[in-house]
Amino acid sequence: KAGVTQTPRYLIKTRGQQVTLSCSPISGHRSVSWYQQTPGQGLQFLFEYFSETQRNKGNFPGRFSGRQFSNSRSEMNVSTLELGDSALYLCASSLSASAYGYTFGSGTRLTVV
Amino acid sequence: GQQLNQSPQSMFIQEGEDVSMNCTSSSIFNTWLWYKQDPGEGPVLLIALYKAGELTSNGRLTAQFGITRKDSFLNISASIPSDVGIYFCAGQGVSGNTGKLIFGQGTTLQVKP
Question: Is A33 near chain B, with CB under 8 Å?
Answer without folding.
Answer: yes
